[in-house]
Structure formats: C-alpha cells, structure tokens
Amino acid sequence: MKEKPQNITTRFAPSPTGFLHVGGVRTALYAWLLARKNNGKFILRIEDTDKAREVEGSIEHIQKSLKWVGLNWDEGPDAPGPHDPYIQSQRLHLYKKFAEKLIAKGLAYADPYTEEEIEKFRKQAEADKKPFLYREHRPETLPEWDGHQPLRFKVSELKTYTWTDLVWGELSAGPEALDDFILIKSDGYPTYNFAHIVDDIDMGVTHVVRGQEFISSTPKFLSVYEALGVQPPHFVTTPPIMGADGKRKLGKRDGAKDFMDYEKEGYLPDTMINFLAFLGFNPGGEKEIFTREELIEAFDLNKVQRSGAQWSDDKLDWMNKEHMKMLSEKERNEKIVERLKILGIDLEGVMSEKLCPIIFDRISKWGDIDTFVAEGELDYFFNAPEYEKEKLIWKDSNLAEAKKHLEYVTEILEKSSDKNFDSVEKIKTLIFDYATLQGRGNVLWPLRVALSGKEKSPDPFTLIYILGKMETLARAEKAIKKLD
RNA sequence: GGCCCUAUCGUCUAUCGGCUAGGACAUAGCCUUCUCAAGGCUAGAAGCGCGGUUCGACCCCGCGUAGGGUCACCA
Fold first, then answer.
1. What is this structure's pTM?
2. Which of A207, A386, A434, A457 has the fewest CB atoms within 10 Å of its CB?
3. What interface predicted TM-score (ipTM) does this complex get?
4. What CATH superfamily classification does A9-242 receive?
C-alpha cells in the first residue's frame, strides 16, 4: 500500500537518571525494529541536560541493558559517527547556535521573573482551575538574554496544529497547548523540549519513536520546527505499559524495576524482545513466538496498539519457557550447570546429563533454579531423607504391604552384580515386572518416596541411577525400618 | 479543572461492515503418568451505555461513562 520509506533514521534518547525499565526498552525496541526493517540507522543519544537528576554510572548501565537484548546502535556515545558527540552535555554550542537563530528572529527572549514569581502564577492558575500558561504573563517588551536567565521561546502564532502520527493517525491540538516554554535553562543547559529538536534536526532523525506522554507537547515542538523553518520528522508514538494492577503507566516512581533484573532472574534476551514487542503490537496471525529476525520482518507501525497494555509476569514466564525450548540440549545444560555452580553445586559428567533435563522440565527461567535449590527440591539427590510413615504408602495400601514390596525390591538391588548401577535398565526391567504383577503404584510409589523422601521427585529409576548402589540400598533399608 | 487520547474474555490480542466473535496467558476439569512437571483434550470467560448511519454494525458518527496522558529552569 505504501512504499518502503527510504533512509530511515531512528533514535533512542534516554536520560541517565538511573536504570532503564521495560517501558524505555520497548520504546528503544520499536525504534530499533523500525530502523532494522528498513535498513535504516539507529542512534543512541544520551540526554543529560538535567545535571541534578543525573545518576553516576547510568550511561554505562543503560548501554549494558540495550546490549543484553541485542539492540545494537549504529551511532552513539561509544560508536563515533558523523554527528559526534552523542551526549547532549557535550553539544551545548549547538543548542546555543540554534537559540541565537531564534533570538535573531525575535522568537526567543529572556525570562525576567524569579522562580517564586512564576510559582505564584502557577498556583493562581491552579486555584482558578485553569491550565498554567506562561505566555499570559509575557512582558510587553521582550527582555534581552544575557545567558544567565532562562531563555524562552516566543509563540508567534496561536493556532491549531494538526499532524499525522504513524501509529495514532491524525492528531490535533489547539492554542491552549502552545506556550512560551524554556529553551535554555539558567544553568546554560537546554531543556528536553529544545535539545531533542535541535539534535533530531542535526542528526537527520526521520522517525521520532517516543512514549505517549509526548503527544500533548507535540504542538509545542511543531511551533519550534516552524520557527526554525525546518520540516518536522515523522512521529511514532507508542502506547504506555501499565503496571500489573493495570491502573497506571509503569514508571520508576511506581516501582518499575531495573531491566537488568530480568537478566539476573534468568530470562532470555529473545524472550524480552518478543514479549516487549507484543505488548502493544500484534502482527495479526496466531503465531506468538517470534525470533528476532521474524520480528523485524513482521514489524509494522500500522499494527501498533494505541491503548495501554498491562504487564504480565505469567505470560512472560510462559514465553520464556517457549524460547528455552528452542535452545539445544547442550545450551540448556550449560546454563543449568553454570547457575548451579554459582549456588555451590558442582555437577559433572553423567550427573549433569541426567540431572539437567529433570531440572529443565521444572523451570521457566534460569533463576527458578535458585528457588529450586533453596527450597530443597534437589535434596533427594544429595541428602538422605527423613520419612513420615504415611507418605510411604500408596493410596489405599497399608504399611505391611509397602514394606513387603520394598523388601523385595531391595533384594533385586542387592543381587544386582553391577556395583555402580550403570545399567539401570536391567534392574528397571526386573522391578517393573514385579511391579506390574503387584500393582505399579503399590511398588513404585514406596520405592520412589523411600529414595527421595519426597512426595514430588523424579522417577525412582533416575534416583537409583544417580544415587548409586550403596546409597540406594541405605535409603531403602532406612525406609523399611521406618515401616516396622 | 483545561486540553489530548483510549475502550473486545481476568490479562495480551485477532477481526480492516457479514460473527456460530478466533488465538494465547491465567483458571477449572479430564486423559496420560509411579508423584510433580511437561504434554494432550475439554470447559467457562468479552464487544462500557444510549442514540444515529446502514439491508446489516464490535468495526463508521454523536453523546454519555470509565480509564490513561499532559499542563516543570524533568525528560
């Protein structure tokens, strides 16, 4: 229907005020997908114009987050490009240059008021239940700027702006959205409202992918583009991600967590990409599990949602398991062994070959291994169990019966010539034959509980295999004694 | 409060005027299984309300309602 846009350039422009949360990453993801799909350019720009809110180390942390999920940028703080540098605090001269253009046109002036005076205006507006508009207090003669007051933009024409957002369609807002906002603060740094426009122009950004909170200030941006005589870029506005309660936009103030926490919890990068993309986007079919490449292929701005989507840990976990299943057995095992090692459990050779699949079945993210271990779920392999008599009995059977079966099985095990139970298959056949005659549950249940000490555990043959002859017999005999 | 936006199962969503409203997560039940998990099957579960346009509205329009965003020398 419409031809592929040419020479697309998108950017992600976080401010280094701490960590990135899922909302920020999704905005970055959409910008990245848009660029990658169109063979365009994706720029990372750091918007550090608020020195008071800046948090040490966040630039590195943000980059780490993006790198974790593979959102690579073509130009950025650590990737030199034609518009170096990519950190706003190092581009002050540029904002000044653009500010001077506006001053020359009579479209910018110094703010003569003190902060207290403005605060008074604001309070008054609030009391009158009216939106605060600075321009209503604009001095008759515009004060000249000496670089120490805030520099304000002068709205020259109060009109209704209409623009097309690639996600939301046609949008418009009247003059009440226009105001004399601050371009450059008294500390010499530009505000976001001005800096991002200057940078987007300078860097040739064609598509501004941003959160929905910027819709209301778009007329302000358009009035600046107009004053500068520059054609505005395309706006691509993403819907908000709501907290799990569905009530409010997810934000740091509401306890949104550090995106890197998901890495710590053991989610796969591909899951995060897949999940985040689908929170507010759906290509239309019934397929939900997408690889990164498939996502780039399927991404379409027309299919991006406008209403907020609620975050769901349940669905994230499900999706992560789906992506985990796409891993090879070798990759799975390596991950599990690695995670266990951190917990002080060393698995080697056959042990890991046997144990890893059991663990894999029971987790939906690598971090589940931690709770698995913490809750003693793997104790059946490492510690001799304590018994509660009743648990050794299968359904309606009785103690004597359980004991009889256990003793018989013990006999089979003792007779086994294979000291290491390397061929559990042979033993398995013998026990199975017996169990089939006696009722499988009646035999296998007490055996499994005797070996594991738990109501839930892997099957008895796996246990026999891993425990070895000595330990298996020791546990079985302990259980038999308990049944006396 | 002004302005802007949004509205399909509990949740994420499909439908681009023809719907017996589809899928996924979650929930419940059943099957399989030595238990749990996994897997398979099944079930319940939705078009915010009122008008209008139309042969026909979940889809288009208006009003109402609800929710979100925004109104900083924050981004």
1. 0.92
2. A386
3. 0.94
4. HUPs (3.40.50.620)
